[in-house]
Design goal:
5 strands; Beta-Lactamase; 5-stranded antiparallel beta sheet; globular; alpha+beta; about 40% helix; about 170 residues
């Protein structure tokens, strides 16, 4: 089901000392959100708990970025990213996120933990341009080939720069 919220041009900017924290289960359902997450998302705690984390997904985010994030964390590795989120009122807010798998005593993944902070302006600028090109590729390719077309834009850029995605994200 598509998100019925219409994006607006209103931006919420994180404060320097803000940390948005959330936890999800293995399926991406929210099991915890701190007060800053509730504040920026515009949803109540009751609305967030049990909801899919993509409740805050902004349509400006390429599908290939989320595939990369999921592939990385499901492989048991942490991942960093610039993400544009959408609040309940349609406003948006950029975050620099670190997502880490939660492991049990047997090193099996039991869920995911995400900490988001105010992103660097240079990173938002670079991510905005990159994501715009990736979205364009997704639209041109059509639903069936969208992720592959978008991922190619990203992998070509990473190859050109000789960097991994994490290295790029940390450098911008």
């Amino acid at each position: 089901m598509k998100n019925p919220i219409t994006p607006t041009a209103a931006e919420k900017v994180m404060r320097e000392d803000d940390f948005i924290v959330s936890k999800t289960d293995l399926k991406g359902r929210i099991t915890y959100g701190n007060r800053i997450f509730i504040e920026f998302s515009g949803y109540s705690e009751q609305e967030l708990l049990g909801a899919q984390h993509n409740i805050i997904r902004h349509p400006d985010m390429p599908r290939a970025v989320f595939k990369l994030l999921w592939d990385t964390i499901q492989a048991g590795r942490e991942c960093n990213a610039y993400v544009k989120n959408m609040a309940k009122d349609g406003s948006y807010y950029w975050v620099f996120t670190n997502i880490t798998p939660n492991l049990d005593g047997n090193r099996a993944i039991t869920g995911y933990f995400s900490v988001r902070r105010k992103p660097k302006a240079s990173g938002v600028k670079t991510a905005t341009e990159l994501y715009r090109a990736m979205l364009e590729a997704e639209k041109k390719a059509g639903a069936r080939d969208a992720i592959a077309a978008s991922a190619k834009i990203l992998t070509d850029l990473l190859a050109e720069k000789g960097m991994s995605y994490d290295e790029l994200v940390l450098a911008i």
